[in-house]
Write a structure and sequence with these properties.
about 130 residues, alpha+beta, Nucleoside Triphosphate Pyrophosphohydrolase, three-stranded antiparallel sheet, 2 helices, NUDIX_hydrolase-like_dom_sf, NUDIX_hydrolase_dom, NUDIX domain-containing protein, hydrolase
């Protein structure tokens, strides 16, 4: 039986680099975002998670779907999948670590091995679309 971890993620690009975050005690970086609360829309969850994690305010009217990527979840038993539903959006404020976030970095395609399997699929798509250096 497959277990699914369903997450939303903010694809924040700057000068061909993707914003990545790392939680305390974790090895790999991930795309900022998280799980929806009961009854929450993707837009509401994205805005809440990004404000909690990075002290940045998403402009809801600018949220656009980018893609959904699914792969084996990092550090979980075989068969536990993570689904990343990714969105782009404009935001207000300079990202800085908050809540459970230990570090944030701007990642390039060369950093692909520093992210989870689902994030690697996103990296491949961004590279294919000419958005990630």
């Amino acid at each position: 039986m497959t277990t699914l971890i369903d997450k939303i993620a903010w694809v924040k690009l700057s000068e061909g680099k993707l914003l990545g975050a790392k939680s305390f005690g974790r090895e790999l970086y991930y795309i900022p975002g998280g799980k929806r609360e009961p009854g929450e829309s993707d837009a509401e969850a994205l805005a809440r998670e990004i404000e909690e994690e990075l002290n940045v305010r998403i402009h809801p009217q600018t949220i656009r779907a980018y893609g959904t990527f699914e792969a084996q979840a990092d550090g979980k038993p075989e068969g536990v999948q993570v689904r990343l539903t990714c969105y782009t959006a404009d935001a207000e404020g300079e990202p800085k670590p908050a809540s459970e976030i230990e570090d944030i970095v701007w990642l390039t395609y060369a950093d692909r091995d520093r992210v989870s399997a689902a994030s690697r699929l996103l990296f491949d798509r961004l590279r294919q679309d000419g958005l990630l250096v």
